[in-house]
Specification:
With 398 residues, this protein is α+β, with helices and mostly antiparallel strands. It is built from 16 helices and 11 strands. The protein has 3 domains: 181 residues, OB fold (Dihydrolipoamide Acetyltransferase, E2P); 98 residues, Double Stranded RNA Binding Domain (2-Layer Sandwich); 70 residues, no CATH class. It is elongated.
Length: 398
């Protein structure tokens, strides 16, 4: 069998070695054990904390984060633990595993676009930084990945082909260029894990000026009640016929007039309501300028953490509630959406590297990104009440 003249069971039984592609998992597991046994656990815990930063008060969040493949892989490669493993224990590895490990040290994490998916078998990916194409053997993820999708991963050789190691992170189109820039800077594992974990952060609710939403209420005692009414008339817009008198601060955003703050004068006090810290600070500063003797009696501010909490602040029944079946309201909202779509076509879009959709449509190097961006929008019936990708495509001639 091998030329030794000895029987197989004497020469080779129990000494068989699996092909290298079937041993890459063992090689990775050996490196993982090195992390746990050789002084890398503090860095691993710090990376795990970043991965679980947005898990809230879940007591098991850190344990789950430490089991996330990105955390270990970032410590191994961006953190230097794998290089240490090869330097310290490389001589103990079989020759082919050691050579493969040395190849892995040369592979950088990158952003890839899925070119083709073969469910249950693998994917073809294009490195957006270099343009290189790779055929990757991947059974499970290939059932979920779709052409055009962006991912962040490490594509490494396995002795026969290529495999993903260290997890597969989805990347939004508007995050692509920033992530590529981060990878080019050779980040440490904490920065990398933090950047790739921001997708777990709860959505930030903002008003039309981009300020984080908050319920802000303040009561101010006026030093000159007789003079403040005229000063408020000169500064804000008075509501007709209301007692006690009420004023609004208005701002124009997206072509519509919106209320920034409400002020009510009641005797020698002014009650102020606004929906962000910035708007409240602006009004209080104005009142201090109009009446230097004024004094803030109460100032409460409560951030709105999510959409459900914000919805609870809106009237749903009784006077002031909106009727979603009102044809006039539906027509108004449709007009607003179409107007916003028209303005959107000429606004700089971060996902298009600051170009407007019209500019991207006319630029062959940007048109692909625009098509992907529009593909992420709902269209037709699914777009009811929001921007319609079909209308946008028609407006752009796509």
């Amino acid at each position: 069998w091998c030329g030794s003249g000895r029987k197989y069971k004497k020469c080779h039984l129990g000494r068989e070695q699996l092909p290298l592609p079937e041993r890459v998992g063992w090689l990775y597991a050996k490196a993982a054990q090195h992390v746990l046994a050789s002084g890398w656990t503090d860095l691993l815990a710090e990376a795990g904390f970043e991965r679980g930063r947005y898990a809230g008060e879940d007591p098991d969040a850190l344990v789950a984060a430490l089991g996330d493949p990105l955390v270990l892989d970032a410590v191994l490669f961006e953190g230097g633990a794998f290089a240490d493993f090869v330097a310290v224990r490389g001589s103990l590895l079989p020759d082919d595993e050691r050579l493969l490990a040395e190849q892995w040290l040369l592979v950088q994490r990158s952003v890839f676009e899925i070119e083709q998916a073969r469910p249950g078998h693998g994917v073809t990916v294009r490195d957006v930084r270099t343009g290189d194409l790779h055929e990757v053997r991947e059974r499970s993820a290939s059932r979920q990945l779709k052409p055009g999708q962006l991912i962040c991963a490490r594509v490494v050789p396995d002795g026969q082909g290529m495999q993903f190691f260290g997890g597969i992170e989805p990347v939004a189109l508007h995050e692509r260029d920033e992530l590529v820039e981060l990878l080019d800077s050779e980040p440490d594992p904490i920065l990398l894990v933090a950047a790739l974990s921001r997708r777990f952060a709860p959505p930030l609710l903002v008003n039309t000026e981009g300020d984080p939403l908050a319920i802000c209420e303040a009561t101010v005692q006026i030093g000159d009640p007789a003079g403040i009414e005229a000063a408020l008339d000169d500064t804000y817009d008075r509501a007709d016929g209301e007692q006690p008198p009420r004023w609004f601060e208005h701002v124009i955003t997206d072509g519509l007039q919106r209320i920034r703050a409400t002020l009510v004068l009641d005797g020698d006090t002014v009650r102020v309501e606004a929906n962000s810290d910035q708007r409240m600070d602006r009004v209080l500063a104005t009142l201090a300028r109009l009446d230097p003797a004024m004094r803030v009696l109460e100032d409460s501010r409560r951030p709105l953490r999510d959409a459900r909490e914000a919805a609870e602040q809106l009237p749903v029944t009784g006077q002031g509630a909106l009727d979603p079946d009102d044809p006039e309201l539906a027509g108004f909202l449709d007009e607003v959406i179409r107007g916003y779509e028209t303005r959107w076509l000429d606004e700089p879009i971060p996902a298009l590297d600051g170009h407007t959709p019209r500019q991207a449509a006319d630029d062959p190097t940007r048109r692909g990104d625009l098509i992907k961006l529009l593909g992420s929008f709902p269209a037709g019936v699914a777009a009811q009440g929001g921007m319609d990708a079909d209308r946008l495509r028609a407006a752009l001639g796509l």
